[in-house]
Design goal:
This protein has no helices and four strands. By secondary structure, it is mainly β.
C-alpha cells in the first residue's frame, strides 16, 4: 500500500470569480483517478462541524458520486466514512468530504 504524500503546491487553487480570494491548497495529493472539487467548504453536516482549510470534496474520475451535493447540506450525523483507492483516502459516505 502506498502512502499519501503531504501536498505542498507552489501556488494555491484559483477561486472562481474575479477578485475572489484563492482557496487554500489541498492537504494531500490524491491517487490517480481522484481529484478535489475546487470549492471552499464552510462546515460539515447539520451540527456545522469544523472543516480545516485545505479539505475538499473528493471526485472520482471527475464526477461526484455522493448522495449529498455539498458538505454543508450533509445529513450524516453518525459519521460513517469509507476508505477508497486501496485504503488511501477516507471520505464521508454521504458527501465525499475528505476525512483522511
Amino acid at each position: 500500500m502506498s502512502t499519501l504524500a503531504l501536498h505542498t503546491p507552489e501556488k494555491p487553487v484559483e477561486a472562481a470569480g474575479p477578485g475572489a480570494p484563492a482557496l487554500p491548497a489541498p492537504l494531500w495529493e490524491l491517487p490517480a483517478g481522484l481529484s478535489y472539487r475546487a470549492e471552499r467548504v464552510a462546515y460539515h453536516g447539520p451540527h456545522r462541524e469544523f472543516v480545516a482549510p485545505g479539505r475538499f470534496v473528493v471526485l472520482i474520475d471527475g464526477e461526484s458520486p455522493w448522495a449529498t451535493a455539498r458538505p454543508e447540506e450533509c445529513l450524516n450525523t453518525s459519521n460513517p466514512s469509507v476508505w477508497i483507492a486501496d485504503y488511501e483516502v477516507l471520505v464521508c459516505l454521504s458527501c465525499g468530504l475528505d476525512d483522511s
